User: Fold this.
Amino acid sequence: MIASLNMYARPEVNDVLFHFWDLIRKNLENHGISAPASLTQDRDVFEVWTDPTLVLSQTCGMPFRKFLHNKVKLVGTPVYDFEDCAAGHYYSVIVTCKDDPRTTLKEFENARFAYNEENSQSGFAAPLNYASKLGVKLSNRVPSGGHVKSNEMIANGLADIAALDAVSWKLIERHDAFSSALRVVECTKPTTPVLPFITFMSGDADAVFMAICDGYRRFNP
Assistant:
């Protein structure tokens, strides 16, 4: 059995994630579903998502659409209560250096665009689609390997612009000192479904959904 909640994992929030998982795990066991005692946070995400013993994980929307929709069961999407977002939806934040004089995305034509990976909805697909509708080309692309690294590249003068989901941006603002050198240029439309929770194909998605909901109520009474 395996479970993972590593989409927003970072040292500052890991204790919270582990506690949340412990509540979910106990709820699953109350429903007769076996679950691992601890989260697996250090394995390759595609290995986790396609593991035949997967109890629970969270995946990015693009991998779910492209690779996983017929290999796993959708449990549900969380609600992050973003302003002007429908329940279960979110948006990408487009970020640049605070000292950059450009104020709109149209001014960043062919600027150095740092992105976490090509299979990312918030860091790659969403900003490119948004830019395309504005007639803006972001063809000067620099892979970074992660949202935090993309933003570090901007702060260090190695890139001009990057995009990331609103949750990751809030975590960076809260925990990374270099965020004080950054600012938001624009946000994409708030129409992207939030990163979905998944379980293995033969799993009881309804029971897992209820276990998450019960765990959240206990975690945040």
Observations:
- The helical segments are 14-30, 45-49, 61-68, 121-133, 147-155, 166-175, 205-219.
- Residues 89-192 form a domain with the D-Maltodextrin-Binding Protein; domain 2 fold (CATH 3.40.190.10).
- The chain has a mean pLDDT of 94.
